[in-house]
Amino acid sequence: MKMPGLFFVWFLCICVCLPSAVLGNGNGYVLDKPVTELCLNCLCEALSECNATAICINPKIGTCGIFRITNDYWVDAGKLTINGEHPDTEHAFINCANDPHCAADTIQNYMHQFNQDCNGDGEMDCHDYARIHMLGGFSCEGELPYFYQSKFEECIVNYQEQGFE
Ligand SMILES: *[C@@H]1O[C@H](CO)[C@@H](O)[C@H](O)[C@H]1NC(C)=O
Fold first, then answer.
1. Fold of 31-161
2. In angstroms, what is the span from residue 99 Cα to ligand 1's centroid?
3. Nearest-CA neighbor of 129 among 146, 154, 109?
4. CA count, 13 A, side-chain hemisphere, 50
5. In the chain, where are the structural domains located?
6. How confident is the model at residue 24, as a pLDDT?
């Protein structure tokens, strides 16, 4: 469990730290990156155990990729695409959601837009992003699914014990 997580941090770093211009974000723009890589890692651990096998869990609702992103979420985040794909092409959403780098940038854009203190602790941090990601930008105070919440908290505590923020 720990190894794939650490691998993913490394993997994300390779992808996300490289200038976006080199990798190309298609037609969308990544404005800034409020979400740390440790936070992204705990989100994907809780959502999919960071299993990067390209997959859409529920093709109708379309929750795709390691962050289980929906089409609506992707639209709200500015329709980022990979390989210069036009955002209106049929597979633009699925291709982005199944690409860890494009999916992570989609989260950054979504959080940039919906950044708020969901749990009322006076801070905007990963705990809020976990809520916004699962519950959306307009109802993030609600109840989180138990499995998701416990996996997420476990991941955060794990990093804290290792001395990470
Ligand atoms: C990742 O997901 C795929 C598709 O669901 C599955 O076949 C595979 O066993 C998973 N890999 C791991 C390491 O869990």
1. Lysozyme (1.10.530)
2. 16
3. 109
4. 25
5. 31-161
6. 38
Q: Residue 123 in 3-state DSSP?
A: coil
Ligand 1 and 3: CB distance under 6 A: no
Torsion angles phi and psi, residue 56, rounded to 5:
-115, 115
Q: Which of 1, 45, 53 to mutate to test the pocket of ligand 1 (most atoms within 8 A of CB)?
A: 53
Ligand 1 centre distance from Cα of residue 51 (Å): 6
Burial of 152 (0-12, 13-18, 19+ CB in 10 A): buried
CB atoms within 10 A of CB 32: 9
First-to-last C-alpha distance (Å) of the chain: 20
Ligand 1 contacts CB of residue 53 (under 6 A): yes
Q: Would the CB of 23 count as within 6 Å of ligand 1?
A: no
Read off the pTM: 0.81
Ligand 1 lined by 21 (C-beta under 6 Å): no
> Could you list the mean pLDDT of each consecutive 10-residue stretch along the chain, which spans 165 residues?
47 41 48 90 97 83 92 96 95 95 97 95 96 96 97 96 83
